[in-house]
Design a protein that fits this description.
The chain is of the alpha+beta class. 66% of the residues lie in helices and 17% in strands. The two termini are 29 Å apart.
């Protein structure tokens, strides 16, 4: 292997290794931050909806419950909403049939939620320390997954461009270094042959 090729490959290998570390850490951070935001949105959604339906549940106003569910389901992240009374009876329900038919199953983590296709959350309806029921809600991971996939695609595209630029710069730098070393070798040969006036 020539010195030129070794130089080019060495520079490229160092740059690709550093780029791989950067891409992997960036992807890990993007995934964890998007997942954290999703969990925050889920917590806010269930608490806000529970606050909104507390009075209608206490007063047994089913029409208002249905209206609130219909409005909340305009949010594309919410797959279904189920409101239960203190005895577990369903007072109002709305959303995707498949999600409603599935067993309510709050996952321990987002990987479990991905496996079942939704993130089930619940919030107790407690007023002045008294339990009036609970809200069950299924959240879609689609927006979060799309954001993560988009970021991954963007980073990998950027990395490919970076690798091509590194290959180009490695070639240019390799040529410059080996050309100068070649000039030095030629001068050394001339000095060895007795030509001492070489610069």
């Amino acid at each position: 292997m020539s010195l030129k090729l070794k130089t080019i490959l060495g520079i490229a290998a160092i740059e690709i290794a550093l780029l791989a570390i950067l891409v992997l850490t960036s992807l890990g951070h993007l995934k964890s931050s998007n997942e954290e935001l999703f969990l925050q949105r889920s917590a806010i959604a269930k608490q806000l909806f529970a606050t909104m339906v507390s009075d209608p549940v206490i007063s047994f106003d089913l029409a208002t419950l249905d209206s609130l569910i219909a409005n909340a389901l305009k949010n594309r992240e919410i797959l279904y909403i189920r409101v239960r009374d203190a005895n577990g009876r369903i007072l109002a329900v709305g959303g995707q049939e498949a999600a409603l038919k599935a067993k309510f199953n709050p996952p321990r983590n987002l990987d479990e939620a991905r496996a079942i296709g939704r993130f089930d959350v619940s919030q107790a309806l407690t007023v002045a320390g008294k339990d009036f029921g609970r809200v069950e809600m299924g959240m879609s991971l689609a927006n979060t997954e799309t954001a993560i996939a988009s970021a991954k695609k963007w980073l990998l595209s950027l990395s490919l461009i970076e690798v091509m630029l590194v290959a180009l710069f490695s070639y240019v730098i390799g040529n410059m270094v080996t050309r100068r070393i070649g000039t030095l070798q030629q001068a050394a040969r001339q000095v060895a042959n007795g030509e001492f006036g070489i610069q």
